[in-house]
Write a structure and sequence with these properties.
The protein is α/β, with parallel strands linked by helices. It folds into two domains: about 140 residues, Rossmann fold (3-Layer(aba) Sandwich), CATH 3.40.50; about 160 residues, Glycogen Phosphorylase B (Rossmann fold, 3-Layer(aba) Sandwich). Helices cover about 35% and strands about 15% of the residues. It contains 14 helices and 15 strands. The strands form three sheets. It has a seven-stranded parallel beta sheet with strand order 3-2-1-4-5-8-9, sandwiched between helices. Helix 7 packs across helix 11, helix 10 crosses helix 12 and helix 13 packs across helix 14. The longest helix has 18 residues.
Amino acid sequence: MSILFVHERAAFTGGVEQNIADTVRAFTARGIDCHLAYNPLIPMHQRFLALFTSSHPCNELSMASSIFATLSFSEIARETGAHCIYIHKIPTVPESIFTVSVRRVQMVHDHDLCCPRRHKYYAHNTAVCTRPIGPHCYLDAAFLVRDPNARFGFRYESIEAKRHEMLRRKQLDLSLVASEFMQLELLSNGFPPERTCVLPLAIPQDVTSPSVVPSGIPTVLYVGQLIHGKGVDLLLRALAQINVSFRAIIVGKGNAEASLRCLSRELGLEDRVEFAGWVENASLPGYYALSHVVAVPSRWPEPFGMVGLEAMRHAKPVVAFDVGGIPDWLTHGHTGLLVTPGNVGAFAEALERLIVDRELAVTLGAAGAIQVKKRFGFDIYIDRLLELLLPPSLNSPASSKLFLEVSH
């Protein structure tokens, strides 16, 4: 049994790559051969490539010409003997993919496919956009995308090219998404309902117990990229409104780091907010162990929000804006607190409530730890994914029965 993964990056750079790596490890443990086709123009990590039975650079996955001589995509598919082509993030689907007579499934990880600007909120007011791609995208100047390498800091993104790529991808056998918000996004853009499916993400469960509540000054933790869409500036403004003792740790890197450090100083938070920088996944449990509450202040509609599962796995309550796929895993008043999008004052009140009421924080955190085991178990995720990727003839009756039970 063989699956060909298709992704532009052969490196550990973010949540998408971590999801691919976790999935490949699980598939390999079940005796499935996993192969990779990737863009040879993007730097690669040997540690990532080593996960796969074989890996293949492919010029068709690049938007630019390459000096490398590579096999065509159809040749790679034939050489690997793939029973399924599993597409992740690539700028365009190779034309030859439609000549390969195997099942073709894509995982839509974010808004790149349906939003010219990619973050799915309006530039003029940061309100979340729920409309399909269309003329209003021109009114919001969505054809201008920030690019630090461009002459004026922006480059042109063809909205018509985006629509054309969506039309091509509607021909694939199945589009997977992690949340109801993302499914509605595809459906509003004309993807066939029978070819879309919600598959909530999951993370491998380790054998360690959930983190205990630490003593000392209550700690608010943020884990993620330091970019505008993640709303760390909103978090800082909320922290400035908290009237009780606390400290905050911000884990991550990004192009907004300098401005966020400056904002922290302007708000008088430099003695209470620590910027920890980029941290290896293996070291993150230590930061969760230090925290009392985890903040997810995203202004962009998170396609899912894996940091929420990480927080719940460590029995930490979450305070988050009610955007995108976050409500799929955060149950208000049960595993954390949801706040009206962009309402900094309400976000501050929610954080302060959990800082002051430690009993409530512990109760919400414990409920989160139970929920992540019941609803987001990794083995269940892998079973369902295999059902969706492989033809029925290649799935065992036992796994088919499990999928039906979980789905109903």
